[in-house]
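Course assignment 3, question 2. Fill in each field.
Student: A.L.
Task: Predict the tertiary structure for the chain below.
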Amino acid sequence: MTANGHAATVPAPGCALCTTPGTFGPRHPADPRSGLCPACIAAGKPTRDGLERAVVIVAGQSLAAAEALSLATATPEELTYHLGAVKRSLRTVLQLLAPVEGEPR
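Answer field:
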């Protein structure tokens, strides 16, 4: 806490979005790019390349969460949630591979 009662910003031990290890500065709620690694900042740009990077980051997070799930102890609800998340991520990645109208094949 600071002297005026606000929480002090502390640098996180990695990217605030994709948890890539490194020092990317403190996270400030007023600045949407604070605490993010260069890959996540580039993914936030409104371009097709930025969209593709964002989809790959989210798909990777969904896959990592599903891989961390213990099948022996998971509840049916957890299995359903993670299977749905992997399915949505796979669908999104496959949509990226679909041809775009107006681009050469």
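Instructor remarks: The chain is about 45% helix and 0% strand. The helical segments are 38-43, 48-68, 76-97.
Grade: pending
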